[in-house]
Design a protein that fits this description.
Elements (H helix, E strand, L loop, with lengths): L2 H17 L5 H16 L10 H12 L8 H13 L2 H34 L2 E2 L3 H10 L7 E5 L6 E3 L5 E5 L2 H4 L4 H13 L2 H14 L4 H26 L4 H10 L23 H9 L6 H7 L1 H11 L4 E2 L1 H5 L20 E4 L1 H4 L14 E11 L8 E8 L2 E15 L2 E11 L1
Parallel strand pairs: 2-4, 6-8
Antiparallel strand pairs: 1-2, 3-4, 5-9, 7-10, 8-9, 9-10
């Protein structure tokens, strides 16, 4: 899990707050799909134009803060060093596995409950009538229809043998909303929400320690419910919005907080916010082709801004083995001379990290001094620097720290101590 995925998740949540009732549901499905893809890609994709490069440019060139002397850089270096400690890794692995088993246990219990529900369900006696309703809306009869006396609201479940399970005699006792309930659960199966749930649960188990993954899990479940409501209303017609919303409220079990599964249109592994669904239902409308095309620019903009990584390379990246450096053996004739710089105090001052109060300080420490080279082959391990300050001359050697590519040029960063 890298910073790119976290930024994409935060962006989707913010976009959802703004555009949930204004753009088609499939846009959020695409956005969450992009988050999934970025989460599982094992390598970084770097571009010159993205959010991170702009952020680093703002920090370094507008605020004039050196990334290489920042607390972020120091923390990253400490973490990398800890990751190289075998004892620390063993402790970390033990904690991670404990979390995986603990979180997995809860999902397994729910899964076993679903299996028990499937086994105790029997085929509906009036399933032919239900199939006729589906045919009237142009839907296929490929899903099993069962009933169970242990539930109070319909449930959609299963991957290999998907089925919709109704409470016993539901179509007789709730005939006024049986169509809405049927279509909603049908949409769960049509959109393959069960498959998405299993993938999502697996990701949550692996990344249980990351709060942003839990945030993604929470909002994807909510979006699936909203998508099913909209799918059902597309078939019923927007004139059914009020009826659909009212029946949704009336069928909420009075003991909902004590028995959270007793909610109308419940989907095996999901929970949702009732208010959000009702608002989405009441604001439902069919979107024009133009609006849908314009809305597709949102995921394109999101992945362009946050999907790629920065082209900055930190020393911690090298320590962690993220990059491989190949050194060419040079003969004595090929050895590059060490560059020498005579600088004014104004030129070197932005890179001095320790403020010396004494006028006659013996040394000053320089961090992240930038030198531009025309190619990587011309980058040297050291540079010699001399600077005059208040009548004193300081000299010393700065050593290579990090490298940044800027088009065809290379920006090398050097750090070291200058002595009086």
């Amino acid at each position: 899990m890298n910073i790119s995925t976290i930024c994409i998740i935060i962006t989707i949540v913010l976009l959802r707050k703004i555009f949930l009732y204004k753009i088609p549901s499939f846009i959020f499905a695409i956005l969450w799909g992009l988050a999934f893809v970025r989460l599982v890609i094992p390598f970084d994709i770097t571009t010159n134009y993205n959010f991170y490069n702009g952020f680093f440019y703002f920090i370094q060139n507008i605020l004039h803060i050196s990334l290489y002397s920042s607390i972020f850089f120091k923390i990253t270096t400490i973490v990398v060093q800890l990751m190289q400690n075998k004892l620390f890794l063993c402790i970390l692995l033990t904690l991670w596995l404990s979390g995986v088993f603990y979180v997995g246990k809860k999902f397994v219990i729910t899964f076993l409950g679903t299996l028990k529900l499937r086994r105790s369900s029997i085929p509906m006696e009036n399933k032919d009538d239900i199939y006729e309703i589906l045919e009237s809306y142009g839907l296929s009869k490929k899903y099993l229809l069962c009933e169970n006396e242990n539930i109070v609201s319909p449930v959609a479940c299963g991957i290999l043998k998907p089925m919709i399970i109704f409470p016993k005699d539901f179509c007789y006792t709730h005939s006024e909303i049986s169509d809405q309930a049927l279509l909603h659960e049908y949409m769960h199966l049509k959109y393959h929400h069960q498959v998405i749930q299993y993938i999502l649960i697996f990701i949550v188990m692996i990344n249980w320690f990351n709060p942003f993954i839990w945030l993604m899990y929470h909002y994807i479940n909510r979006d699936m419910e909203v998508a099913c409501d909209r799918g059902a209303l597309k078939l019923l017609g927007k004139e059914y919005r009020e009826t659909y919303a009212l029946q949704l409220v009336h069928l909420v079990d009075k003991d909902y907080h004590e028995r959270p599964k007793q909610v109308v249109f419940y989907n095996s592994f999901s929970k949702y916010v009732m208010k959000e669904r009702i608002v989405a239902i009441m604001r439902f409308k069919k979107f024009s082709v133009t609006a849908a095309v314009v809305a597709t620019l949102i995921p394109l903009g999101t992945v362009s801004a946050f999907g790629a990584g920065p082209h900055y390379m930190f020393g911690s990246d090298l320590q962690s083995g993220k990059y491989e450096i190949t050194m060419d053996v040079k003969t004595d004739n090929d050895v590059l001379p060490t560059p020498e710089f005579t600088l004014s105090w104004e030129e070197i001052a932005p890179y001095v990290t320790e403020s010396e109060s004494s006028r006659a300080a013996d040394s000053i420490y320089v961090a992240g001094y930038k030198v531009v080279f025309s190619s990587v082959s011309k980058v040297t391990d050291t540079v010699d620097v001399s600077v005059k300050r208040e009548g004193y001359t300081y000299k010393g050697t700065l050593y290579f720290d990090d490298l940044e590519m800027d088009g065809s040029n290379c920006i090398a960063y050097y750090s070291g101590t200058l002595y009086r």
